[in-house]
Automatic annotation (TrEMBL):
It comes from the Bacteria. This is Phenylalanine--tRNA ligase alpha subunit. Residues 111-340 form the Aminoacyl-transfer RNA synthetases class-II family profile domain. The keyword Flavoprotein does not apply. Pfam families: Phe_tRNA-synt_N, tRNA-synt_2d. Belongs to the class-II aminoacyl-tRNA synthetase family. Phe-tRNA synthetase alpha subunit type 1 subfamily. It comes from Brevibacillus brevis (strain 47 / JCM 6285 / NBRC 100599). The keyword Cytoplasm applies. It is found in: Cytoplasm.
Length: 344
């Protein structure tokens, strides 16, 4: 049997060395090492050997098996390397060709402004809050001191879904919801960015959908000086360290007193030009001290605490900062316009 094993080994190794295709190699593997292969047939004859011969033959069988498996593996690896080399040889690369540019996106200018404003107010200790865009009349109007018969609730100004459900006209409802969650606790410092909707004709300065950021502060001994200081800090971080603001009397149902806040014209430095219509100032936002009635409805005692609120249009800030003349550029998705704001 030892002689037969040696003869089979030499025969198999000779055939393996002459194989030229992977399929032929697999056939040989089955022929010699398969369940019905020649090596298996020889193993079945070990029962007829004497006890002294079995260990010797068994060791030889293992050596033959290992030799054949090594030969098969080596040949298989050689076939794989040859196939890979042939594939690489057939695929040439011209390194002199120019590269294909991969277009990369950039942050939308409105998103950049929102992020910048958030960073400024977070640095002042404010928190960022969010709320639903489809809002209840109760939060959008009533909690902000606008009763059912108030002129600001005109059907021509608001997108109503039902009598009690509407698309929010401002982000102030988020302030109302936040005040209720606080349950009269102070201090409260928050801003709430988000989309708002009004029934307006779209033109260069108006849009039926736009973005607002409103802020609210409630604590003990809050006064107009705190409001002015906060907005002046914001203006200088957003538009430059030498910026100045002015406050003009105005009216809003949810603040008393109320003011319009103007920014010194960055184009003429306050001397008067066509940008500021020769006034030296540009209106940027509305603000005021929170109305006592609003505080009461939200669970605060106006005799113990006070607060201020402000609201600004993100598009307005972006148009001033980037000298954009038409608000519609922000929504038309013209890549020529958006490429101007690539951070790179």
């Amino acid at each position: 049997m030892q002689t037969r094993l040696q003869e089979m080994k030499e025969s198999a190794l000779g055939q393996i060395s002459q194989v030229t295709e992977a399929a032929q190699l697999q056939d040989l593997r089955v022929k010699y090492l398969g369940k019905k292969g020649e090596l298996t047939e020889l193993l079945r004859g070990m029962g007829s050997l004497s006890p002294e011969e079995r260990p010797v033959v068994g060791q030889l069988v293992n050596e033959v098996r290992e030799a054949l498996e090594a030969a098969f593996s080596g040949k298989q690896k050689a076939f794989e390397e040859a196939a890979l080399f042939a594939k690489l040889s057939s695929q040439t690369i011209d390194v002199t060709l120019p590269g294909r540019p991969v277009p990369a996106g950039t942050m939308h200018p409105l998103s950049r402004i929102i992020e910048e404003i958030e960073d400024i107010f977070i640095g002042l200790g404010f928190e960022v809050a969010e709320g639903p865009e489809v809002e209840l009349d109760h939060f959008n109007f009533e909690m902000l001191n606008l009763p059912k018969d108030h002129p600001a609730r005109d059907m021509q100004d608001t997108f109503y879904v039902t009598e009690e459900l509407l698309l929010r006209t401002q982000t102030s409802p988020v302030q109302a919801r936040t005040m209720l969650k606080k349950e009269g606790k102070t201090p409260l410092k928050m801003i709430c960015p988000g989309k708002v909707y009004r029934r307006d004709d779209d033109d260069a300065t108006h849009s039926h959908q736009f973005t607002q950021i409103e802020g609210l502060v409630i604590d003990k001994k809050i006064g107009m000086s705190d409001l002015k200081g906060t907005l002046l800090t914001f203006a200088r971080q957003m538009f430059g360290e030498n910026q100045q603001i002015r406050l003009r009397p105005s009216f809003f149902p949810f603040t008393e007193p109320s003011v319009e806040v103007d920014l010194q014209c960055f184009n003429c430095g306050g001397h008067g030009c066509r940008v500021c219509k020769q006034t030296g100032w540009i209106e940027i936002l509305g603000a005021g001290m929170v109305h006592p009635r609003v505080l009461e409805m939200a669970g605060y005692n106006p005799e113990e605490v006070s607060g201020f609120a402000f609201g600004m249009g993100v598009e307005r800030i972006a148009m001033l900062k980037y000298a954009v003349e038409d608000i519609r550029h922000f929504y038309t998705n013209d890549v020529r316009f958006l490429r101007q704001f690539n951070r790179g």
